[in-house]
Specification:
By secondary structure, the protein is an alpha+beta fold. The chain has one helix spanning 6-27; strands spanning 34-38, 44-48, 64-69, 74-79, 82-90, 106-115, 118-123, 128-133. The chain is globular and about 35 Å long.
Amino acid sequence: MSFVSRRAVAAFGTLGALALASLLLAACGGRASRVGDFSPQGEAVGCVYGAELPPQPAPGERCRDALLHTHCGVVSLVVEGERWRAEPPLYNTDRTGPPPGWDDPFQLGQFKRLSQGRGVFVASNGKLASLVPAGSWQPPACD
């Protein structure tokens, strides 16, 4: 079951649906269980989905709530105006959508920068996607 339903995304838009999901999490205590401790490279991530963050975290050391568009696969993510691309991109067997276990059309989770050139998306269900800065790369067209 998705934390962000298609109906919520249609009614409120992507940012509105993310805000709605954040409100729902806050109403439920603002915390959820740990979903991932290690990045695909084996580095400690420490993102706790829905965790309350310190008021002034050090730059690059905090997990940011994120809504990943997955309808055509796990391909790219924009966080605070910065575009990241999945490396490798993740698809279903037909390369027409996300792999099994990922929500469609959006996956709620958290993003953490691991270094200047690497980041990780930790989905609310524990799935991981390794990310690198997109630079001038553009995601493929998606219907």
